[in-house]
């Protein structure tokens, strides 16, 4: 095999290997191995090309929690009345009714915390201060001992937000002057702003990813051109060819 033929084969093999290496590197960057990211946090929703965080920035869209005004707006007071039956062993909820183990809860919404007349509150409850706003009742019903540390109330709490909202809606009706439910316009505006901001972040991240892909494609093209030029430069002159400037030396 002549040296010229060997050089051509070697150059072609080198160019092929280099091109394959570039393809593998680019594919790894654009399509990362899921096993390498199995411990990554899950996204709120996936954005194509962003599974491995390319594009610089977190694209997770966090779904806002349902606000208390929204819960109260859709609360079912009739369901709350059914839930109050579990409270009836310790509380009355009628005007002028006597206190039981716990105070009468007629008019409780909006009243001072630990300020009901004719009932001997614990020191923790009596010294707490504030009033039974919708927010305070919502927090208290979830975990009484956490909201009022040292309270004598043994009730562990109501975990489901919807159940608490239903009960509060019912208790608000058990009053001579029920309070107006809090407006939800501000909460809705905040949710819309959060979704809009998250969508803008996702769009920017996607644009960055497209830019990276374009740069990678350009780099691959440049590398291929360099490899082709190197292969051409390495091709020697044909064996037996003479330099046109050389004479035959006899004339």
List its traits.
251 residues, mainly alpha, Cytochrome Bc1 Complex, Chain D, domain 2, 2 domains
What is the strand and helix layout of this fold?
Elements: H1 3-30, H2 68-73, H3 77-84, H4 123-126, H5 134-142, H6 144-147, H7 161-173, H8 185-233
What do these coordinates show?
This protein is mainly alpha-helical and 251 residues long. It has helices at 3-30, 68-73, 77-84, 123-126, 134-142, 144-147, 161-173, 185-233. The radius of gyration is 38 Å and the shape is rod-shaped.
Could you provide a short overview of the structure?
With 251 residues, the chain is mainly alpha-helical. 48% of the residues lie in helices and 0% in strands.
């Amino acid at each position: 095999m002549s040296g010229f033929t060997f050089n051509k084969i070697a150059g072609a093999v080198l160019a092929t290997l280099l091109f394959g290496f570039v393809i593998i590197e680019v594919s790894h960057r654009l399509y990362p191995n899921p096993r390498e990211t199995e411990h990554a946090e899950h996204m709120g929703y996936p954005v194509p090309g962003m599974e491995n965080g390319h594009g610089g920035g977190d694209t997770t869209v966090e779904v806002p929690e349902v606000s208390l005004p929204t819960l109260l707006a859709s609360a079912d007071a009739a369901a709350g009345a059914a839930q109050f039956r579990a409270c009836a062993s310790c509380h009355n909820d009628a005007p002028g009714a006597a206190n039981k183990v716990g105070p009468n809860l007629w008019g409780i919404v909006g009243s001072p915390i630990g300020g009901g007349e004719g009932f001997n509150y614990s020191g923790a409850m009596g010294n707490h201060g504030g009033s039974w706003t919708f927010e305070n009742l919502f927090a208290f019903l979830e975990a009484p001992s956490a909201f009022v540390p040292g309270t004598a109330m043994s009730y562990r709490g109501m975990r489901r937000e919807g159940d608490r909202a239903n009960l509060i809606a019912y208790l608000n009706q058990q009053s001579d002057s029920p309070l107006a439910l809090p407006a939800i316009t501000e909460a809705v505006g905040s949710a819309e702003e959060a979704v809009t901001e998250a969508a803008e972040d996702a769009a920017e991240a996607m644009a960055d990813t497209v830019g990276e892909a374009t740069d990678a494609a350009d780099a691959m093209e440049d590398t291929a051109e360099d490899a082709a030029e190197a292969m051409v430069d390495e091709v020697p002159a044909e064996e037996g060819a003479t330099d046109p400037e050389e004479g035959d030396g006899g004339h």
